[in-house]
Design goal:
Layout (H helix, E strand, L loop, with lengths): L2 H9 L2 H8 L6 H12 L17 E3 L2 E3 L3 E3 L5 H4 L3 H12 L2 E4 L7 H5 L4 E6 L5 H14 L4 E4 L9 H6 L31 H10 L4 E6 L2 H9 L4 E4 L13 H12 L5 E4 L5 H9 L4 E4 L1 H33 L14
Parallel strand pairs: 3-10, 4-5, 5-6, 6-7, 7-8, 8-9, 9-10
Antiparallel strand pairs: 1-2
The structure holds flavin mononucleotide and 2-OXO-4-methylpentanoic acid.
Length: 338
């Protein structure tokens, strides 16, 4: 475990630590994500006169200072009283994008008020009218894209949470963005009957870019492009849904080939070092998302802890790019990964 994760663990209620750290089943996929990155080796290019680096990247009209986004993760107030608003403040300072979870514990309006660029994550809701309500609210708050998580037709079996009896937020906390028109908080719905027609209905109800999160098969990536989706996140939900699912960096190359440059492909799961980001970029990802390390930063140090995590990723990526002979993320090529 990293020193930061140790500090987070010491700061957290052990039940909440298990919720944040854990995965589904035997946690094979959770481990596989990091292991798959650890197996990759970078093949540097030399004497390329790299000079000053420019890490900035554009996604759907937003300029990010680096190709690193904050992944949607639930329940930030359980990690630190500053909650999602605290995380967003750090994201604004680092000039990147925060994907706000549908299971956020603070109102999306307060989160966007920090000035951070925000995308809103949606579990596809079986009640269309309620989903439209949530989407309109996110739009009105200034969210710039919708991230639709498609790897959760049912909720994953998290054995640590079962052992701990953790199945809901404690009293005093709610999923603030699950309120309906009457202000009542709904349960997040998981629905195994939903198909591509759900994406069509969502498409018809919003002008925001739609990004599908949780795609691992190249045939689904192709279908997503055909169905008018604007971006993909190659993800296995940080090993919290299908235990035994392929590691994300192993799935990435086939998806990049299937998409063939038509829409941006992002990836998350097990990104822990600047070298991991460089590998993902070289294999064709436009950017990566970071899940647990952000929570560890928040738990250990509040908003400034999140800022430290983001800046450490920036610093490491810049260093790796220089050593690998790349001035920009797009200079890295697939032949530089062994
Ligand atoms: C505590 C926790 C909560 C999460 N909550 C959500 C969520 O609400 N919606 C979602 O799409 N993904 C959720 N995820 C998955 C993350 O968005 C992301 O895919 C994953 O954490 C990336 O892996 P990493 O933690 O190894 O970086 C969650 C992950 C964690 C660890
Ligand atoms: C509590 C859930 C809605 C979020 C979560 O834990 C997850 O998506 O992994």
């Amino acid at each position: 475990m990293t020193a930061l994760a140790e500090r987070a663990r010491a700061a957290l209620d052990p039940v909440h630590w298990d919720f944040f750290a854990g995965g589904a089943g035997e946690e094979r996929t959770l481990r596989a994500n990091e292991e798959a990155f650890s197996r990759r080796r970078i093949v540097p290019r030399v004497l390329r006169g790299v000079g000053d680096r420019d890490l900035s990247t554009e996604l759907f009209g937003t300029r990010l200072s680096m190709p690193v986004l904050v992944a949607p993760t639930a329940f930030h107030r359980l990690a630190h009283p500053a909650g999602e608003v605290g995380t967003a403040g750090a994201v604004a300072a680092s000039d990147t994008v925060m994907v706000v979870s549908m299971a956020a514990t603070q109102p999306v309006e307060d989160i966007t008020a920090t000035g951070a660029a925000v995308w809103f994550q949606l579990y596809p809701q079986p009640d269309d009218e309620f989903q439209r309500h949530v989407v309109k609210r996110a739009e009105a708050a200034g969210c710039r894209a919708l991230v639709v998580t498609v790897d959760s037709p049912v909720f994953g079996r998290r054995e640590r949470d079962r052992r701990n009896g953790f199945d809901d937020l404690p009293d005093g906390y709610t999923c603030e963005n699950m309120r309906d028109g009457e202000g009542r908080v709904r349960e997040i719905g998981f629905d195994p009957t939903l198909g591509w027609e759900h994406v069509h209905r969502l498409r018809a109800s919003t002008g925001l870019p739609i990004v599908l999160k949780g795609v691992l098969h190249p045939a689904d990536a192709r279908l997503a492009v055909e169905h008018g989706v604007d971006g993909l996140i190659v993800s296995n939900h940080g090993g919290r849904q299908l235990d035994g699912a392929i590691a994300t960096v192993d799935a990435l190359p086939a998806i990049v080939r299937a998409v063939d440059g038509r829409i941006p492909v992002l990836v998350d799961g097990g990104v822990r070092r600047g070298a991991d980001i460089a590998v993902a970029l070289a294999l064709g990802a436009t950017a990566v998302l970071i899940g647990r390390p952000i929570i560890w930063g928040l738990a250990a140090g509040g908003p400034s802890g999140v800022r430290d995590v983001l800046e450490a990723f920036r610093d490491e990526l810049d260093h790796v790019l220089t050593l690998a002979g790349a001035a920009r993320p797009s200079d890295l090529t697939a032949d530089q990964v062994a």
